[in-house]
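Hey, quick one: can you model this chain's 3D structure?
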Amino acid sequence: MSVFFKPNFMAAILLFAGWLLAGCSDDNGMVPPGGNQVNHSDTTAADTAIAFSYLALGDSYTIGTGLSDESNSYPVQLVERLNQNIVLAGSAPRIIARNGWTTGNLLFATDTAAIDTTYQLVSLLIGVNNQFQNRPIEEYTEHFQELLDKSIAYAAGDTAKVFVLSIPDYGVTPFGNDYPNASEGVDNFNAVNQEITENYGIAYFNITEISRLAEDNPKLLASDELHPSGVMYSLWVDFILADIEEKLLE
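Sure thing. Here's the predicted structure for all 250 residues.
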């Protein structure tokens, strides 16, 4: 079963979140992308580096809505962190995502995006707007499976190169205070995407619990008090990094 909860890692995140409450740098403290260059220590390493491309599919949580610098979004941070490995050389991620998108919007976008190449990594994070707009969960089930099928095709049919992130819980944010059933609704939609992902044998990362740390730590939210901050996204990357790195090195 390819589901990642990592209880020891979650404990470490809780400690880190406590440190953040005591005060830490904001998004400006994150290292911006520098052209996604690998820090090669010698010519031999540069010659043998594994080049990879990455396609990130999603909505506002993928594009980095609310950030003052969208280079702090999780796809960009992920490539930056992967490139710290001397044998990896990733190009800037291709991101197909927009604020407010539902699964239907993403399906349409992928149909019209002329994706004529394959990728060594493909990620999918989608569904919060289906839940927020009270769209039928049956529709979400059908659409999510279609999007996962597409994701596999974009990874040249290799399910090992695809990964899914759970929907964050906006119910713990100041914005979410007006929606008392938000957390339960997010859990219901995550149950669907998790089951489908597991049935495909694809890696599933439950970042929802990390998102809930924002209830007690405003530094984990962007200035809109709804979307994650760069610090929050860095916690996501910390959580998934080792497993994604392993995918590329297999």
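One thing worth noting: The first strand starts at residue 3 and ends at 4.
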